[in-house]
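User: For a reading group we're discussing how well predicted structures match intuition. Take Putative outer membrane protein. Before you show the prediction, I'll give you the sequence so everyone sees exactly what went in.
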Amino acid sequence: MVADELKKAAKLDDTPPKLSPKHAAMLDLLKGASEQDFQPLYIEMQTTAHMEAVTLFATYAKGGDDEAVKAFAANTLPKLEMHKMHVMHLVAAH
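Assistant: Thanks. Here is the predicted 3D structure of Putative outer membrane protein, as structure tokens, for the group to look at:
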């Protein structure tokens, strides 16, 4: 699992991460969305999240300061780019 690989690379403990205020607000928006609004809102959020993830991983893979995390980012980046491509196909279909 990718999360386990990141924990190992970054030497993190098993403390569950907390959602950032931004992500907590996004989750609240989805929880409060009507059935009609949920899907477009979810697709929009997934698009943004995947674009941000690809940018973050690409940036760290090129210039990160922790070699283990840098390698993790470089190895994970192709999967994230593939997921982003799937999301973009989803956007095009809707």
